[in-house]
């Protein structure tokens, strides 16, 4: 096979793999996405890292937020968050979580599902439409902190 035909065949295979609806990326779980994206700051299984990033494994928070939990987690993922948060007496001060809006909305939903259902036993999960809406019009950090403080 000459070099030109080889290159054409290679490009065809790569295009086919990239456009496949059953590609490898579709098989990545929320737990794997969390581990690869979030765990460096929030710790394995979302337990938090004192002084760096608060725990996401916090059933009391998610239960208290109720239906607002979807908006809160989607808002934090798309807008990031800064400021001070106190969880279980530990102060997370001057923290800055960068927006993760460059991550595909479907993957953010998988991460949110892992955090809310697997780590916290919640039944609520934001959908792609909410993630897309908040990517287009992110909530301010003040709005996000107000949601978190809601009784």
At a glance:
The protein has 151 residues and is mainly alpha-helical. The chain contains eight helices and two strands, in the order αααααββααα.
The number of distinct β-strands equals: 2
Oligomer: single chain
Structural class: mainly alpha
Globally, the shape reads: globular
Radius of gyration of CA atoms, rounded to a whole number: 19 Å
Q: What percentage of amino acids are in beta strands? A: 5-15%
Lateral strand order in the biggest sheet: 1-2
Termini Cα gap = 69 Å
Order of helices and strands: HHHHHEEHHH
Count of alpha and pi helical runs: 8
How can the largest sheet be summarized? Answer: 2 strands, antiparallel
Descriptive terms for the model:
mainly alpha, 8 helices, 2 strands, globular
Explain the overall architecture.
The structure is a single chain. This protein has 151 residues and is mainly alpha-helical. It has eight helices and two strands; from the N terminus they run H-H-H-H-H-E-E-H-H-H. A two-stranded antiparallel sheet has the order 1-2. Strand 1 and strand 2 form a beta hairpin. Helix 2 packs across helix 6 and helix 5 packs across helix 7. The radius of gyration is 19 Å and the shape is globular. About 14% of the residues have low confidence.
Question: What is the strand and helix layout of this fold?
Answer:
Elements: H1 3-19, H2 30-37, H3 39-42, H4 59-65, H5 68-79, E1 81-87, E2 90-97, H6 105-118, H7 128-136, H8 141-149
Antiparallel strand pairs: 1-2
Helix pairs in contact: 2-6, 5-6, 5-7, 5-8
């Amino acid at each position: 096979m000459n070099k030109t035909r080889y290159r054409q065949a290679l490009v065809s295979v790569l295009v086919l793999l990239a456009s496949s609806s059953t590609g490898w990326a579709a098989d990545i779980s929320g737990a794997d996405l969390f581990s690869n994206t979030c765990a460096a700051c929030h710790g394995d299984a979302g337990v938090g890292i004192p002084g760096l990033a608060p725990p996401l494994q916090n059933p009391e928070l998610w239960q208290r937020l109720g239906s607002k939990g979807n908006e809160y987690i989607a808002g934090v993922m798309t807008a990031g968050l800064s400021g001070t948060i106190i969880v279980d007496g530990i102060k997370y001060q001057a923290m800055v979580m960068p927006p993760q809006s460059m991550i595909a909305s479907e993957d953010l939903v998988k991460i949110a599902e892992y955090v809310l259902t697997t780590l916290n036993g919640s039944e609520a999960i934001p959908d792609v439409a909410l993630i897309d809406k908040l990517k287009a019009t992110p909530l301010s950090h003040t709005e996000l902190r107000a949601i978190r403080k809601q009784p």
